[in-house]
Amino acid sequence: MKKTVKSEFSLFVGERTDEERTLIEAFFSEFDLHFLVSKRDKKQFRADFESAIISLYGQGVPMEEILSRLSLANLGGFYARPSTVWFPLDNAAKIYPISMEHGRQQVFRLSLYLKEDVIPSLLQMALSFTVKRFPSFATTLKKGVFWHYLDAVKKHFPIEEEHDVPCQPIKVSLSGSQPFRLMYYKNRISAEFFHVLTDGTGAMIFLKVLVSEYLRLCGVTAAKSDIWNANDTPTNEEFENAFVKVEKAESGSGFVDKPVLQMNGQPARRKPCRILHFKMDATELHRVAKQHGATITAYLLMQMFYAAQAATDELTGDLHIQVPVNMRKFYPSKTVRNFSMYCGVKIPIEKIGNKAEMIAEINAQLAEKASKDKMREMITAAVNLVNSIRIIPLVIKQPIAKIVYGFLGETLYTTTFSNLGVVNMPSEFCEHIENMDFSLGAQMTNRLACTAITCNGVSTFSISKMTADPTFEEKMYRLLTEDGIAVAVEGSEYYAR
Fold first, then answer.
1. Please, which contacts does 168-173 make with residues 24 or more away whose CB atoms are closer than 8 Å?
2. Does pTM surpass 0.90?
3. Order of strands across the sheet with 318-326?
């Protein structure tokens, strides 16, 4: 006769008191009512709950409190209803799936560091409770007749322990695959997104809700918080294509340009081949930037121009740094989808010299090129481009798009600098958070991409490397330390040896 092997959870329940067993049985009695998913997914959801119960009980949390934190009400009816909605891509996202066919996939990462190691079972529950709040994230990318689109999918979204190179392409071509991934490593929580899904602002909203849910499951709550409530009902505005709010300019401009200088260095086989983080005291960085008559963005841009000059052997030509602009500051919107454009700061390499003159030039270009009027012109140009090929079937459009969007390629800028600014968290959460970082994924032509983010008093300047040449980061480090800023360098080893 075959012997039945009891599961870990069955053994756990058998060791509990009668009162605790009654509470557990009552909790799972309505479990099936919350799930209209595949048998395999339902089994995984059940295993997640069981693992979280065991984990919290091991921390000394009373059973009644455990089941309250894990209440099935946190699922709402999201997983109990069939998938019926789909989302057309926003204006900025339409290019990404087409570009992907030509070997590119725009992936970016947000990471948050806790003061203690991540508890995987609770992070998994936090994701299951959070994803329902973001219907446009619970999707899979599909091909339509004329454009790609996001199709809603109700399934188990798993977390992963991190083992690979950051910002690797997400396999969105697989049936039912998700356009984001959530990972953990020691005390780090990392969320990576295919840009077709969202921009930095939308990703940050998602991550803050997720971290809020994770800390709640750990027993940490905030008396006052402006973080979205995971149990609130989503509104149309939160996943709208906000570009339609922008009034059309008389003329569209901002895309057509000529190729600019690129930094030297042999491109690596794996991209990015290294991620570096410069950690700095936010107050000190702000003080130094102010001394130069600059914002933190303008100050770091200035240092990037010096570093890029050092990282190329060219003596003439333009260095051009692309800077994303959040359109929500001009057109208020709660959308978690893409609503950003970009401006370019361009300086001839032979004119990179006096710091005061550099800051004045950067400030002037940012004021002009990142203005509302210029952004309207760029959006109008983007809309015109999309409209020019909108009625062409996708199977024909993709090779044509390579030509149409060719002049948007990376040859038109030297590198990118995206600053997400200051991330505010409730004081109760800050007690459990160290800091954050933000990384951009692989570029095909550009040798690196840079970002900045500030959290909990720490400003982090990050460099995603596409080449082993260390000139740029060594120059940046030297420039910052010469200005009296203490820089702690963290990051990965070189991946592509």
1. 168/107, 168/441, 169/100, 169/105, 169/107, 169/442, 170/105, 170/107, 170/194, 172/97, 172/100, 172/140, 172/141, 172/196, 173/141
2. yes
3. 340-348, 318-326, 415-423, 448-455, 458-465, 274-281, 488-491
The radius of gyration of the chain's CA atoms, rounded to the nearest angstrom, is 24
Biggest alpha carbon–alpha carbon distance for the chain: 86
Helix (H, G, I), strand (E, B) or coil at 213: helix
Q: H helices then E strands: how many in the chain?
A: 14, 15
Alpha helical stretches, state H, 320-391: 355-369, 372-388
Parallel/antiparallel/unpaired status of strands 448-455 and 458-465: antiparallel
Residue 267 DSSP code = B
Cα separation, 206 vs 209, whole angstroms = 5
340-348 and 318-326 as β-strands: parallel, antiparallel, unpaired?
antiparallel
With beta carbons less than 8 A apart as the criterion, state whether 67 and 24 touch.
yes
> CA quadruple 466, 472, 478, 481: dihedral positive or negative?
negative
Tokens of 452: 């900045």
β-pair type (180-185, 159-161): parallel
For 419-465, how does the pLDDT look when each residue is reduced to its tens digit (9 = 90+)?
999 999 999 999 999 999 999 998 888 999 999 999 999 999 999 99
